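Lab notebook, bench 4. The sequencing result for the construct came back, and we need a structural model before the next group meeting so we can plan mutations. Quick request posted to the team channel:

Model the 3D structure of this chain.
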Amino acid sequence: MRKEECFYLGKIVSKFSFKGELLIKLDTDDPEHYLKMESVFVEYNKNLIPFFIEKSSLQRSQLLRVQFEDVENEDDADDLLKCEVYLPLSELPPLRDDQFYFHEIIDFLVIDKNFGKVGKITGVNDSSPQTLFEIDHQGKQVLIPVNDDFIQSIDKKNKQLFVDVPEGLIEMYL
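Done. Here's the predicted structure in token form:
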């Protein structure tokens, strides 16, 4: 399995018990959806390694407590701390037509209500406090916050995202 065929589910943040149980901090709005997983891919030494789940439960809303097969003690668990966890894209829950996953909208054309064609989405930066669309406008990068108030609609068939951003925001980058 290649990383490009997967989505980021979360990160192993700590051990839970001396029996090798681990806590995964989930990056999702719907943690309950991931309670019945049979396996996950753990990025270990730059490779995605499948780990089968013996049991799992939620701890404090965004933490998934897991017991992996063959991870039976603290030493085994220590090896996996801070590793990222992935699932195949096929495991993503379906969305309504007006919703999207970040990986789906790469190369979508962004059209602002007042400015017109802004450019194509080259990426989504979710490593800052405010998630941002990264847009290429004639070789210059324009950043637009991913904000429900700014997003008017999405046309997945024609790969277009319609926005209405505050006046001057786009021009600030040009």
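Residues 30 and 129 are 20 Å apart (CA to CA).
Will bring this to the meeting.
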